[in-house]
UniProtKB/TrEMBL annotation:
<dbReference type="InterPro" id="IPR011250">
    <property type="entry name" value="OMP/PagP_B-barrel"/>
</dbReference>
<protein>
    <recommendedName>
        <fullName>Outer membrane protein beta-barrel domain-containing protein</fullName>
    </recommendedName>
</protein>
<dbReference type="Pfam" id="PF13505">
    <property type="entry name" value="OMP_b-brl"/>
</dbReference>
<keyword id="KW-0732">Signal</keyword>
<feature type="domain" description="Outer membrane protein beta-barrel">
    <location>
        <begin position="26"/>
        <end position="275"/>
    </location>
</feature>
<dbReference type="InterPro" id="IPR027385">
    <property type="entry name" value="Beta-barrel_OMP"/>
</dbReference>
Length: 303
């Protein structure tokens, strides 16, 4: 009896041990499951933009030369040139606009056209008259169109404020109105022409021009920017006016007067609307999508 009981207990213990071992073998720990983060959309800074500007062109002073038909009247061989004492343009308002493209947060280019018209005056002493007893007083107006290809570098964005520098090159159409040339006499000097005014046809031509700019833009909305700055423009020398009727009757032809070009200084302000790319200070763009933290599945699975 005792031996049978011992045998039974031993068998039960062995079976329990085998069952425990089998259950332990069935426990499988799954490897961690890595869920990749959602893709983060990059903010593009590229895109087209439109701009419109108004500005103020300050008074400008230049010089020039004019031809004088010497005795003998017979053509260009008798023309002698003299220096203008001064040519001045009054200050004037200007308007402009353009189409541009932003390449990234720092570089952009645009093509612009600007226009202004201003009164013009000039003066010089009469030829072959000593002292200042006789002078020429000229008056006209000048219309100027500039068409420029410009490049800019934005110097970083500070809040909604983005300073920049730039430069451009292109052409300018300088068109003079009729030039009124008045002979003014003083100091007892008298001559047939004293007090008379002669008219000269104004010239119009395209010339080379370049410009330098500095300014800053301020974000109004994500797409719309207020842009203000300074612009310097150099316009090359060229034709100004033709001969009067009296000189033409005596054989003169072509151009009588030339200017030595213009140095224009202007302040300007306007709006720039960016159609694509960027965000505040850099154009239009969607906000980045932040990826969630990786999730690991670590539950124990029993088979």
């Amino acid at each position: 009896m005792n031996s049978r009981l011992v045998t039974t207990v031993a068998v039960v213990g062995a079976l329990s041990l085998l069952a425990a071992t089998a259950n332990a073998a069935d426990v499988i720990e799954e490897p961690p499951v890595y869920i990749p983060p959602a893709p983060v959309e990059e903010v593009s800074t590229a895109g087209w933009y439109l701009r419109g500007d108004v500005g103020y062109v300050f008074e400008s002073e230049t010089s020039g030369k004019y031809g004088y038909l010497r005795g003998g009247y017979g053509g260009g061989d008798f023309v002698q040139y003299y220096h203008y004492d001064n040519i001045e343009t009054d200050s004037a308002f200007m308007v402009g606009g353009g189409l541009g493209y932003r390449f990234n947060a720092f570089a952009r280019m645009d093509l612009t056209a600007d226009y202004f018209t201003a009164d013009l005056t000039g003066s010089s002493n009469c030829v072959d008259v000593p002292g200042s007893y006789c002078s020429y007083a000229d008056s006209s107006e000048i219309d100027v169109w500039t068409v420029m290809a410009n490049a800019y570098v934005d110097l970083g964005t500070y809040g909604r404020f983005t300073p920049y520098v730039g430069g451009g090159a292109g052409v300018a159409n300088v068109s003079y109105g009729t030039m009124n040339n008045k002979f003014e006499c003083s100091g007892g000097f008298t001559a047939t022409n004293c007090g008379q005014t002669f008219t000269h046809e104004g010239m119009s031509e395209w010339r080379f021009a370049y410009s330098l700019m500095a300014g800053a833009s301020i974000d109004i909305t994500q797409n719309l920017k207020f842009d203000a700055g300074y612009k310097y423009t150099r316009i090359a020398e060229g034709e100004a006016f033709g001969w009067d009727a009296q000189d033409i009757a005596n054989g003169a032809s072509g151009v009588q007067g030339y200017d030595h070009g213009y140095d224009l200084h202007a302040v300007r302000a306007g709006l720039r609307y960016e159609f694509g790319g960027g965000g505040f200070g850099k154009g239009k763009g969607k906000a980045p999508v932040y990826a969630p933290d990786p999730v690991y599945a670590q539950d124990v699975v029993f088979k």
